[in-house]
Amino acid sequence: MLNQRLQQALGYTFVRPDLLTQALTHRSYGASNNERLEFLGDSVLNCSVARALYDAFPNLPEGSLSRLRANLVRQETLAEIAATLKLGESLRLGEGELKSGGFRRPSILADTLESIVGAIFLDAGFEAAQRVVHGLFEPLVAKIDPKASGKDAKTELQETLQSRRLPLPDYRLVGTHGEAHDQSFTVECVLSKPALSTRGVGKSRRAAEQEAARQACTKLQK
Q1: What is the pTM for the complete model shown?
Q2: Please, are residues 198 and 210 in contact by the beta-carbon 8 Å criterion?
Q3: pLDDT, tens only, 81-119
Q4: Which residue out of 42, 76, 111, 123 is catalytically annotated?
Q5: In the annotation, is 159 catalytic?
Q6: Looking at 80, 111, 114, 209, which residue is catalytic?
Q7: Is 152 a catalytic residue?
């Protein structure tokens, strides 16, 4: 039932459901796991995202496209997409990973998403996998400002402060909310000079930090 819900969220139904089962199986669960599918899915994902950016921004040079792709296929972004798909509910984890909260760990969620892309590629070919990737990333691509630097918010904030010879920010976890399988995190970004405090919310602590940093950058620019 969970896998059926996941397939609906992906917009793809597997001809070989065993491939999806393998894609959802962490190495802690057993020998037949998703590591090889992850290797395959990583390449398919990178190529599919590259094509989406190539089509969306016909005037951007290679360097800018590469930076945008790096931001989209990094662990944090993949984990965010995995969280929206509620992949944590479908993961097959060993007892140790279950107890330690592996179902919400960004690295495991990101790797699983890559594995699913690899499984779709084996199940129906590159075009089918590319359609799924485009569907997942389309909202993110649509939000991209091609005039922006392409750097993540934390890096941009750090470089801005360093250029002004100001102290670096301090990120503090304020709280967590929701059930264990669907948590959100609130992080505060505190600047001592200029005195400034912003808060960000995300499905992972890193995502919340990025949101808090983005708000800090916006306020500094004003």
Answers
A1: 0.72
A2: no
A3: 999 999 988 889 888 887 777 777 888 999 999 999 999
A4: 42
A5: no
A6: 114
A7: no
